Amino acid sequence: MVCSVNPEAGRECELAAIGRDGEGRRAVVVGAGPAGLEAARVLALRGFETTLVEREGRLGGQLVLAERPPKKWRLGWLVDYYRNVLGDLGVGLRLGCEAAPELMDELSPSAVVWAAGSVPVLPASIPGLDLPCVLTAPDAIMADPALRDQRVCVVGSGMTGIECAEMLAEQGNEVGLYEMVDQIGPGIFFQNMIDIMGRLDKTSTKLFPGHRLVSVEDGRARFQKVDGSEVVAEFDCLVLSLGIKGVPVPEWLEGRGCELRVAGDALGIGRIQEAVRTGYDAARSIA
pLDDT > 90: what percent of the chain? Predict the structure, then answer.
């Protein structure tokens, strides 16, 4: 048994109570996604003087994106929970702040949890991805003003891509969802797939499985089908959802001599449950 928001669930007999053994030592958590939020909570419970550093001006990390598509707004409750708990525990927040060597010199921590999250994958093998008409899924989801009344190609139909396509369709865009393999939604849990496809079917979204993106020009995307033939799609905006990769620990931090742990997507790409659990385990493992 596991729980996305309670990392102790199913492990109650294995885990001792959290002891207050931090003794006021300084700890820094880099990244305010679910892994970093949980790590900061546990470190503060242990009695560390904890500072949470986040380059964006808000808490939540990927949760901020995850709550934007239709029917997902309740994920924001988890961010609200951590905001309240961390405030009660006296965790210092450095929002809109880069984790630079100068900051670490200022804070002088004895322990650091690196939970800096992930960034979208942009394959160098596909020419044209640097064009202004190409957005990543986070760019499209957080666009202000929102994309409306445009022809949009969404490339990649994992959970992020398919939810992005649904959101864009609901905003009044003409959406085509393209997937390299021969089925839409590869790897998505079947109950989630049934749910989201039931809603997507009610929109005008067109589905194109078995289409691999080859290149992008201004307003045109070239795809190769499984039979080797090629098709060209015209668009106003192309949205890439080809996966994410973890942000590695910088060399300057590895050489500082403080106790270092890695959590969340920076450790291995996962979902909320994996992020929260790795943040919890990282914070508990610090001596």
Answer: 94
* 38 shares a domain with 66: yes
Residue 77: inside a domain: yes
230, 129: one domain: yes
Q: Which domain holds residue 61?
A: 26-119+245-285
Does residue 7 lie within any of the structural domains? Answer: no
Q: How far apart are CA 224 and CA 172, in angstroms?
A: 28
Instruction: Average the pLDDT over 14-33 and give the result.
Output: 96
Average pLDDT value for residue range 120-131: 96
Regarding whether 228 and 173 lie in a shared domain, the answer is yes
pLDDT band at 274 (very low <50, low <70, confident <90, very high): very high
pTM above 0.85, yes or no: yes
Total domains present in the chain: 2
> Is residue 186 domain-shared with residue 234, that is, in the same domain?
yes
The answer on 103 and 89 residing in a single domain is: yes
> Residue 66 half-sphere exposure, CB side, CA atoms within 13 Å?
17
